[in-house]
Specification:
By secondary structure, the chain is α+β, with helices and mostly antiparallel strands. The chain has nine helices and 13 strands. A five-stranded mixed sheet has the order 9-10-11-7-12. A four-stranded antiparallel sheet has the order 3-2-13-8, with helices on one face. Strands 1-4 form a two-stranded antiparallel sheet.
């Protein structure tokens, strides 16, 4: 029998349907427009046929069975999100508490579930695995006395997370399968505490989305030294954005910015510039049209750390 649920979307097809081209002929399968990151190679594709991989989230059990619990769980979140978008966001209505929980879980999943996220965490845990392998190699060359002396050295505290070698190996090989649930459970409650705005375009400029739709961004990070520009949920100025249709984009923040807010054409262009900057390989639009402004690289501001710390 053919395996079920082999094609698994790292950007949900149901989410992408908001970008369907309204000018699609009635005799054709509905499609969106997908472009390379640089704006080239625009082509029309059905949402079901893009931004997916085979068994991306499938867990293969020891007996060889395919565990699809992650795929099914994500499917539930996608269905909840689609209902919220169609019944609430579209009509500028308030969400109830249950809807807010499901929305925040969907956004948390959107950030961790992509192939870009997978490759990032593979690299991070791969580096940890290399350290463990190097340490194991050194231990193999030690005498028993040296091993005893080494075992007395501890640099960790009782609160540090501890991982076995096999756990680190699993995280480096299948980070999404191991990290998906813990990340959603830890990020969702924080998103619920943040202010949430729905940016609304009432002009000719429309929001695009991409293969990395959920972005964590700190607009003040450029003022810090390069090594201290990582973005975390506790960052005072963090902005978590995810377009939800060509007309609307979610914005989570700590700056008391909330509700349905109209955004002008320049604001939409800036958000699309950010979307392109964080795109991995491809972005999606509702029409066969791009804007040169999306691809412009912004200059480093005068008050950037680099400009204020130039050598004499």
């Amino acid at each position: 029998m053919a395996k079920k649920n082999k094609k698994q979307h790292f950007v949900p097809a149901s989410y992408l349907k908001a970008w369907l081209d309204k000018n699609c002929p009635t005799n054709q399968t509905p499609y969106v427009w997908i472009f390379n990151k640089d704006g080239s190679n625009g082509r029309k594709r059905a949402p079901e046929n893009i931004l997916a991989e085979t068994d991306l989230y499938t867990v293969i059990n020891k007996d060889g069975d395919r565990n699809l619990s992650i795929e099914h769980g994500l499917g539930t979140l996608e269905d909840k999100f689609s209902r919220i978008r169609n019944s609430k966001f579209k009509f500028h209505r308030e969400l109830d508490d249950d809807e807010k929980i499901h929305l925040c879980a969907f956004v948390a999943a959107a950030q961790i579930r992509t192939t870009k996220s997978r490759e990032h965490h593979k690299e991070q845990w791969g580096n940890v695995l290399k350290v463990a392998d190097n340490l194991n190699e050194k231990l193999q060359g030690m005498s028993e006395n040296q091993k005893n002396d080494f075992s007395k050295i501890s640099v960790s505290s009782s609160t540090d997370p501890k991982f076995t070698y096999e756990q680190i190996k699993e995280l480096s090989e299948k980070p999404l399968q191991k990290m998906m649930s813990p990340v959603i459970k830890s990020v969702t409650p924080i998103l619920l505490k943040m202010d949430m705005a729905i940016l609304c375009s009432n002009n000719d400029q429309k929001f695009i989305t991409s293969d990395n739709p959920c972005i964590w961004y700190d607009p003040e990070a450029y003022k810090n030294p390069p090594l201290f520009r990582s973005v975390g949920l506790i960052n005072k100025f963090i902005e978590i954005t995810i377009p939800i249709s060509p007309d609307q984009c979610l914005l989570f923040n700590w700056q008391k910015i909330g509700g349905y807010l109209a955004i002008d054409s320049e604001g939409v262009i800036r958000m699309n510039q950010r979307q392109i900057a964080f795109t991995d390989k491809e972005f999606v639009a509702h029409e066969n049209k791009t804007n040169l402004e999306w691809f412009k690289e912004t200059e480093m501001p005068d008050d950037a750390w680099e400009n204020l710390n130039k050598p004499p």
